[in-house]
Structure formats: structure tokens, C-alpha cells
Design brief:
Blueprint lengths: L3 E4 L2 E2 L5 H12 L4 E9 L4 E8 L1 H18 L15 E10 L3 H19 L2 E6 L10 H5 L2 H10 L18 E6 L4 E7 L4 H11 L4 E2 L1 E2 L10 E2 L8 E2 L6 E2 L2 H12 L3 H7 L12 E2 L6 E8 L4 E8 L7 H14 L4 E7 L2 E2 H14 L8 H12 L9 H4 E2 L13 H9 L7 H23 L9 H36 L6 H31 L14
Parallel strand pairs: 5-7, 6-7, 18-19
Antiparallel strand pairs: 1-4, 1-5, 2-4, 2-5, 3-4, 8-16, 8-17, 9-14, 10-11, 12-13, 15-16
Length: about 550
């Protein structure tokens, strides 16, 4: 699996296109980096840039972008509506595929140190890269903004993680962090009534909504708001319980709803011992921000969401819940929309989820699984959804040999060249065998007599797909591995020393060339298909 990291640097310039292009041109000058999006805001005077690539390439692009921004943006004259503390305000690294959150945190530390050491810019690490628990929250790190940073840097409690303790007057301070992938996800209604979109948005978002009573069915917003009644009663936002004190309500909240009420009140800026205003009812999902709006171009209302941790609240689960809430109110959801890009893992889980709901096999080719996700979620409802462009980390089998026609490949094998040879042919044969095994499992799924074995058959089909793809990659890997032998053969052999060097290189080449077919043997024999209850992770 390719290692892919996303980076979303925010620059304190949103009004001068020439400056923005200067920075993005610098980013695109780094090989191996793909510029996905540039989103300038005039009122915020801020531009959000999205890039992806290998960890090394993205780290380099982030650094050179910070360097260039420090040269073309002067914070001493900057004004904007969005909180900010530097020419490059924040640089978050996001794991997409083949990397962990800790990998991104380490990337943040490396880039942060370069920014501090080489550019003389003070750096705070935040979120998953934070050096202290109190620095995880970006809002707390950025409090005081640029204008207050000179004093903040002098405070021993706020000594920067990297760079000087004196403010770089023109560049300010930069936050470098690691966070989860944010999916910008919208759900479409068969209505242009924003109230209907908000009605569902408030039900599913983490923040929730004001608690109401009375005329709440089917439209909750028509009920009467419930207020705190001083210190005499503490109503629960999620049920009919009312405590005589905050502590009594907190105990109920912990036991019945599994939460920390003090933390909940703090997030809502409610004084637990002197609550005022409306009581809040929690939403259905954590890490979901949502609001309703109307898109004139689409002639419909949308539920606009940011899914800040799709591992906790995946888009397909949010969509299913929204569909249930809509059905209660006689509303039809016509589809949904992903703004920007989405990780392959989120789409894979969606495809498998809807295949399982239909009792269809989950062990199918990647392209078929993606089609299931797109169709089930209605992702092409208002705009085209190009899987190749929209899905990050999409597994691809690439190689000169595997992309040839069957007869062309066979002809190539028959020629008077050592490669492609037996290793490539064995890998292809193994891939075909795995494909046949997957076919048998998939043909069995859906037949009534095999329903009790649905999970086992899906497990076998999924293993077959993984094995098939790995063996297909081996077709080209075997030939490429033999190239090291050919390179050694071409080495000079005019002297005893050259002969010895050549012989050693050939031995190393043969070892490398042997590893690929050995892996093919292990995959076909030692790591072949197993019933789920026989796989290593299920064995003691």
C-alpha cells in the first residue's frame, strides 16, 4: 500500500491572488506532491491549501511553503476575521493510507523543528503532535492571536516547542500538528426549506439542539423550548429525568448516558452551578458538525457537515441515521455529496456496509466496491463523482506486464529474454487461482442453503481479493527484481577486482530476485485462503 499523507496549511492571505499563487507555485515545485485545492477567503484574509503525496514529499512541500509565506506575507499589516497567529497559521498533517497518526505526529515534529531552526519562526505543536496536554487544543494555542504572541512567548508555560522565544515580527508564530482526516460531507433533501435541513442536522450533530417539549412530532423544532429553572431543578437534555442539583444530574448523566456532564456543560459554555438559558439535547454522533442551508444552484436544501473523525462517525452511518430521521418527517434524501476528497478506507467501509445490508458478497474487486458505495450513498446526485479523482489512496495495480493484453504477455514470455520468466508466470497463475476461489465463494453467496455461512463466505471472498491483488503485483515485481541481476551482468569484468565486485553484485541480485517468487510460493501455499476461524488472529 502506498504511503499517503495530506497536509492542509492555512496562510494569512486571502485577498492578493498573486501572493497566493506564489505560495502554491512553490508547493507544486516539489516532486511527488499533488495540489488538490486552494480556497481563499477575502473577509477572513486567509487561504486554505490542500496537498497530498508521500510523507517525505509533503513534508518538504510544507516547509518550503512556510518559508515562502514568511517572505511574501507581513503579519504587521494583516487584518482578517479569522483568528490567526502567523503568516502560515497552521500546518496540520493528516494520515490517509499506509501511515499512522503517530507517523504524522513525527512528521509534524520534524517539520516544526526545521521551521524553528532554519527560518527562525516560533512553533507550537498541537493536537496529536502536542508536547503537552494543554496544547492539544488549537484554539488555546492560538489564544491572544498575533497581537498577543510577543508576550505569550515570554511566558515559561508557553515556551515554544521549536524556534525563538522572541516574536518574528513579520512571520509571527506557526502551529504544526497532526489530526484526523476531515470529510466535508453534504446530504441533499427533496426540499428547498432550510428548516427541514436544520431539523435533521441538529439531530445528528454532536452539539445537538435545544431541548423541546410538547408539539415535537414529527418536527421537533415546533416544540416549546425547555429552560433551566434556576438552582431548583436540573433537567436532563436527553430524557425526562430532572435532578435537584448539578451533582445529582451529573451522576444520572454518567450512569444512563455514559458521559461527562461537566465537560458537556463546558463545551456549551454553561455554568454548572448557575445554569441559565435553554437546556441542550445531545445529537446522535460524535465528531460531527452540521447545519442546514439552501444551495440555489442545486435548487434544494442540504445538510452541510464536517466529519472530523470518520473512524468514529463514518459518512455511511451518518447518512443512514439521517435517512431514518428524514423518513419520520416525510422528507426524502435524494443523495449526498463529498466536497473535495475522501479516504479510500471510508469508501471501502461504506461499500462493505451496503453489500452486507443486501446480503451480497463483500469480497469483490475494488472498483465494484467503490461503485456500490457511490450508488448507495447517491454521491453523484448533484455533481459527478469521479472515483479516480475523489478517492485518496485508491489501490491500483500498475505495471508494464500486467497491463498488457493476454496474448502480448504470453508472446513476451516466449521470447529469448530471461524476463518475464517463471516467477511472473507463477504469480499470474496464482492470481487466477485466487480469482477462481473468490468466484466460487461469490457464487455461493445468495443461495438459500448457504445463508448460515454468509460471514464465512464473505471472509473467504475478501481474502481471495487481497491475495489476487498481491499476486498480480508480483507479476511485475518478479521481473523488476531480476533487473538487479541484469545490471550486475553488465558491470565491467576486466580486472580481478572488477570480477570480484561483479560476482558479489550478482549474488546479491540473485538473492533479491529469489525473494519475489519465494513470496509467491508463501502466498499460494503457506498463506492461502483460510476459514475466518482458522486465521492466525483467531488462533491461540
Amino acid at each position: 500500500m502506498d504511503k499517503i499523507v495530506e497536509c492542509v496549511p492555512n496562510f494569512s492571505e486571502g485577498q492578493n491572488p498573486a501572493v497566493i499563487k506564489d505560495i502554491t507555485d512553490t508547493i507544486e515545485s516539489v516532486p511527488g506532491v499533488r495540489l488538490l485545492d486552494v480556497d481563499p477567503g477575502a473577509n477572513t484574509n486567509r487561504t486554505v491549501v490542500t496537498i497530498v503525496g508521500s510523507p517525505e514529499a509533503v513534508a518538504e512541500a510544507a516547509f518550503v511553503a512556510v518559508k515562502r509565506a514568511s517572505e511574501v506575507i507581513d503579519m504587521r499589516t494583516h487584518k482578517g476575521e479569522h483568528p490567526r497567529m502567523g503568516a502560515t497559521d497552521v500546518v496540520p498533517f493528516v494520515p490517509v493510507s499506509g501511515v499512522t497518526m503517530e507517523d504524522c505526529a513525527e512528521l509534524a515534529r520534524q517539520v516544526g523543528q526545521r521551521i524553528g531552526d532554519e527560518l527562525g519562526i516560533s512553533v507550537y505543536l498541537y493536537e496529536h503532535a502536542a508536547s503537552k496536554p494543554e496544547r492539544r487544543n488549537l484554539a488555546r494555542v492560538r489564544s491572544g492571536e498575533y497581537e498577543g504572541m510577543a508576550e505569550k512567548l515570554k511566558d515559561p508555560e508557553w515556551k515554544p516547542d521549536f524556534g525563538p522565544t522572541e516574536l518574528n515580527q513579520s512571520a509571527g508564530v506557526t502551529g504544526v500538528g497532526a489530526r484526523e482526516f476531515l470529510i466535508a460531507y453534504n446530504i441533499n433533501l427533496n426540499s428547498t426549506d432550510r428548516r427541514y435541513a436544520n431539523e435533521i442536522a441538529y439531530e445528528i450533530r454532536e452539539r445537538g439542539r435545544w431541548k423541546r417539549e410538547g408539539n415535537t412530532t414529527p418536527f421537533y423544532y415546533k416544540g416549546q423550548e425547555v429552560d433551566f429553572a434556576g438552582d431548583s431543578t436540573y433537567p436532563c437534555g436527553n430524557c425526562d429525568f430532572a435532578g435537584a442539583s448539578f451533582d445529582e444530574l451529573a451522576d444520572h448523566y454518567r450512569d444512563e448516558h455514559g458521559g461527562d456532564l461537566a465537560a458537556r456543560y463546558a463545551s456549551l459554555e454553561i455554568d454548572p452551578y448557575d445554569p441559565k438559558g435553554h437546556v441542550f439535547k445531545e445529537g446522535l454522533f460524535k465528531d460531527v458538525k452540521a447545519i442546514g442551508w439552501v444551495i440555489e444552484d442545486y435548487n434544494r436544501a442540504q445538510i452541510s457537515m464536517n466529519l472530523t473523525n470518520y473512524h468514529v462517525s463514518p459518512p455511511h452511518e451518518v447518512l443512514d441515521a439521517a435517512r431514518e430521521e428524514a423518513a419520520k418527517r416525510g422528507i426524502i434524501l435524494t443523495g449526498s455529496e463529498i466536497v473535495g476528497v475522501v479516504p479510500y478506507d471510508a469508501m471501502r467501509k461504506a461499500g462493505m456496509h451496503y453489500r452486507r445490508k443486501m446480503m451480497k458478497s463483500t469480497g469483490i474487486p475494488v472498483s465494484d466496491l467503490m461503485d456500490t458505495a457511490v450508488q448507495s450513498m447517491g454521491l453523484a446526485d448533484v455533481t459527478p463523482f469521479d472515483i479516480g479523482e475523489k478517492v485518496l489512496g485508491l489501490p491500483k495495480v500498475e505495471g508494464e506486464l500486467v497491463n498488457r493484453t493476454t496474448f502480448d504477455f504470453i508472446d513476451e514470455v516466449s521470447r529469448d529474454t530471461p524476463a518475464p520468466g517463471g516467477g511472473s508466470v507463477a504469480a499470474l497463475s496464482g492470481a487466477l487461482g485466487a480469482a477462481l476461489a473468490g468466484m466460487v465463494a461469490n457464487l455461493s453467496i445468495g443461495k438459500g442453503e448457504f445463508d448460515p455461512m454468509y460471514d464465512d463466505l464473505c471472509g473467504l471472498a475478501e481474502q481471495a481479493q487481497v491475495l489476487k491483488d498481491a499476486l498480480v503485483r508480483g507479476v511485475d515485481e518478479d521481473t523488476l527484481a531480476f533487473d538487479s541481476v541484469l545490471d550486475a551482468m553488465r558491470m565491467p569484468k576486466d580486472t580481478e577486482e572488477e570480477l570480484a565486485v561483479r560476482a558479489a553484485a550478482m549474488q546479491e541480485g540473485y538473492k533479491a530476485a529469489t525473494r519475489v517468487p519465494l513470496g509467491t510460493v508463501e502466498q499460494c501455499k503457506g498463506r492461502g485462503l483460510q476459514r475466518p476461524d482458522q486465521s492466525p488472529e483467531h488462533q491461540g
